[in-house]
Structure formats: structure tokens, C-alpha cells
Write a structure and sequence with these properties.
CATH class of the largest domain: Alpha Beta
Number of domains: 2
Family: Belongs to the universal ribosomal protein uS4 family.
Strand order of the largest sheet: 2-1-3-5-4
Order of helices and strands: HHHHHHHEEEHEEH
Helix content: 40-55%
Function: With S5 and S12 plays an important role in translational accuracy. One of the primary rRNA binding proteins, it binds directly to 16S rRNA where it nucleates assembly of the body of the 30S subunit.
Largest sheet: 5 strands, antiparallel
Organism: Thalassoglobus neptunius
Structural class: alpha+beta
GO biological process, one term: translation
Number of helices: 9
Keywords: Ribonucleoprotein, Ribosomal protein, RNA-binding, rRNA-binding
Distance between the termini: 25 Å
Strand content: 5-15%
């Protein structure tokens, strides 16, 4: 799966939200809180432009490309319930997001890298796909290796106490239990999902 490797602070400034959580990107975007290119006078953003920004928030925040977003959208559209809410809940259930929200890592790119390298187990089985969709009752643990245990213990301590009601994280055992599926109110990304659904339905 492709991922963005360009200047992260520029994306944060363009979207007006800290989609990239690394310390360097946050500091750089805070130094210039206005969008890039604002030295020149800009026209009022169109409805299309506003919807595009909301869609870009989802792509950069969860770290996937256009075709993967549309794949999630198609799945959400064919699932019973509100399409926009279903879309965001699917994104939240990705394994890389669960690893990040549980508190194993400081950022989603860190979570994705660890998963791809085989550092994490789901229900005792190695999973190396960041896009893996978790279910209620799934148990996520770190592979039983001293160097990995030390690494993720330090990262989890730096991350602090996670604020996620649907994941129970035990730092001493480096174990996260998905106690329930997230609701739309528990989605971590503030986004106007109605605009995104209208954009993707064109």
C-alpha cells in the first residue's frame, strides 16, 4: 500500500488539522498556522474544494491512497446503516489505527511500520497488514521478543494514557483488547463525512 512521504507540516497546514502527529510536523505547522501559499490573495473555497479537503483529511490521517478509500466507501455503502458513519468506523477498525489508539506507538506511521515488520500479533497470530480489520474481542499483543517489548514499552509510556473507550490497553503486558466496535461518536478524526460521501458519490 502506498503512503505519503512528502513534507508533513505542509499537509497539516493545508488541511487545518494535525493529521500527522510527529513532533517535527506539529512544531513546523504551529510556526505557520496559515495554509501554504497564503502570501497571495486567495479566492473563496468552493463547495467542491471544501469536500476535497475533508476527503484528503481521511486519506492522510489513516494513511492510504484513493483506491483504498473508494474500496472502503463501496463496502460502507453496501453495509446496513449510514454510509458515512460506516466508512469512518471501518477506518477506525484498521489494525494500524488500533495499535496507535491503544497507545503502543506515538503515530500511525510508527504503527504501520511495526505491523509490516511483523511486530504485532492478533489473537496470537502474526499479522503484517496495516489494513487488517479488527473485530470485537480481538487481542493485539507485541511479539515475544525482549527488544520489541522494551521498544514498545518506552513508546507506550511516552504516548501517555490512551483515550479510547472501545480498546482496553494493559501497558504492563503490552496487550490491547478490542472490547467493542467503535461508534461514530468515538471516531478520532473530526471530519464532515457528509461532504465526503457526496464527493465520492459523484
Amino acid at each position: 500500500m502506498g503512503r505519503y512521504t512528502g513534507p508533513k507540516a505542509r499537509i497539516n497546514r493545508r488541511l487545518g488539522f494535525q493529521v500527522f502527529e510527529s513532533a517535527g510536523a506539529v512544531r513546523a505547522s504551529e510556526r505557520k498556522e496559515y495554509p501554504p501559499g497564503m502570501a497571495q490573495r486567495r479566492r473563496k473555497t468552493s463547495n467542491y474544494g471544501l469536500a476535497l479537503v475533508e476527503k484528503q483529511k481521511i486519506k492522510f490521517y489513516y494513511g492510504f491512497r484513493e483506491k483504498h478509500l473508494r474500496r472502503y466507501f463501496d463496502k460502507a455503502r453496501h453495509t446496513k446503516g449510514n454510509t458515512g458513519e460506516n466508512l469512518m468506523i471501518l477506518c477506525e477498525r484498521r489494525l494500524d489505527n488500533v495499535v496507535r489508539r491503544a497507545g503502543f506507538t506515538l503515530t500511525r506511521p510508527q504503527a504501520r511500520q511495526g505491523i509490516v515488520h511483523g511486530h504485532f500479533l492478533v489473537n496470537g497470530r502474526r499479522v503484517d497488514r496495516p489494513s487488517f480489520i479488527v473485530r470485537a474481542g480481538d487481542v493485539v499483543t507485541v511479539k515475544n521478543r525482549p527488544n520489541l517489548s522494551q521498544l514498545y514499552k518506552e513508546l507506550s509510556e511516552a504516548a501517555g494514557e490512551p483515550e479510547c473507550g472501545w480498546i482496553n490497553f494493559d501497558r504492563s503486558e503490552l496487550k490491547a483488547i478490542v472490547t467493542s466496535l467503535p461508534t461514530f461518536d468515538e471516531v478520532s478524526l473530526p471530519v464532515n463525512v457528509g461532504q465526503v460521501v457526496a464527493f465520492l458519490s459523484r
